[in-house]
Write the structure tokens for this entry.
Amino acid sequence: MRSLGPIAMMTVSPALAAAPAGGMPPVAAGQWLAGLVVVVLLVFLALWGLKRLTQWQAPAGGKIRLLGGIALGGREKLLVVEVGETQLVLGVAPGRVQTLHVLEGERRLHAGEPATPPFARQLQQVLNKRQTS
């Protein structure tokens, strides 16, 4: 007869002995559920804290506004920024921001007005031209 060694010497804890067949003992299930609730609460608390930390006031007392922008590549962007009464066209790339143009007079963009008409408006204009032709 072969010896089972350490396996034969293992004892069953009283909590496991009271477990229903094929299931988890009630004490272990309660601990598992309590642990899950604590982890979920910690995640929500961390997200709430992150949200509170990332809120910031408008820079320069609200005198700097982003009027629009477009992605030119994977990491390059073209932005129109209003600083006080001046509007700047900026080229933004990793590690670099460059003023490309200063908009003055009639060339200035008006806040809330898109630089180009939205797609739906352009489509409607094309359809109207075809119907009148």
